Input
Amino acid sequence: MLAFLYTLTQPIVYQATSTALVQAGSSDTVGDAFSGGSLAQTRATTYTALANSMAVGEAMQAELGVDTPPAALAGAVTAWVVPNTSMIQVNATASTPQEAMDRANAAVRGIRDQAMALENAGRAEGQPMSSVIQVIPNESALLPGRPISPNYPRNLAGGTAAGLALGVGLGLIRRQLDRRVRTVGDVEQVMTSAVLGIIPESTELNRENRRAGGLEEQGAAAESLRQLRTNLRFVDVDNPPRSILITSANAGEGKSTLTANLARVLAHAGQRTIVVDGDLRRPTVAKTFGVDSAVGLTQVLAGDVELSDALQSSDDPNLDVLSAGRIPPNPSELLGSQRMQKVLADLIADDYLVLLDAPRSSP
Output
């Protein structure tokens, strides 16, 4: 788009081309023809420099009868020698086809006249001008059919290529500067540990299904949780994990959903499991499993209730729940206390696999 807009702002330029032939000496003999050809090529190279001279510009102004400054007229002309020849090719540019053609033809005649003047610079006053070297106009310029600028295809192609290159470059820079964790490899690199499972985002894991009794037997989410259950058993065959803390970096990422569904998957496999609601600021376990939230972990830690009295059975066999209880003013101190360690140790000793739904981790 930028290339297109840039192209629209460029002036329209037409170009016309005319040619002139430089001849030197005679061709009466082979030697004369060869010498004359070599001299003509040398002179042709010299004469191309005249195209941008003020003298040629003034001659063009006089012939064309325009007010354009001679320097501008000469600046619109380029000339070069066709390789291995004594042919001079002259290009002239202008804003209209007619003006470009007239300038090209006038430039050739201006170069011819200036070349003749240079070749006769040393003649005596009153002596007629003559020279063995002549610049002869060859092909007159034709009316150009289309402008050479702006070049829409070239500019658009260049703009597209530049845009692609810029996009790729910015993408690479952004990728190098991006420190977010996006892939399994990123997680393993940051945590220096293997990933045990990947739980896909699925409607199977939404809040309503979680409270209604868990996942369906079929589905990507259910299969991934069963894969996670299997991987947990092989983390350490000799010493399998007996307590698992589940947390998240941000609120709403699904740690409580994962805890509830993983607990059900473990219980369905015959593993005696208990879910402990350690999120004492925003407890959700009691509501998820439909148990009493009035008595739970905080009362056990405070010594008001025995652990066995605070445990509640869920609708799933082999799955019990220890809700959060009353929300305390100092949850961090309670969770880090010696009593909390003893509660976990007692649950493990009672052959439970403990899933602790912990508060989200601080930034």
Remarks:
- The mean pLDDT is 85.
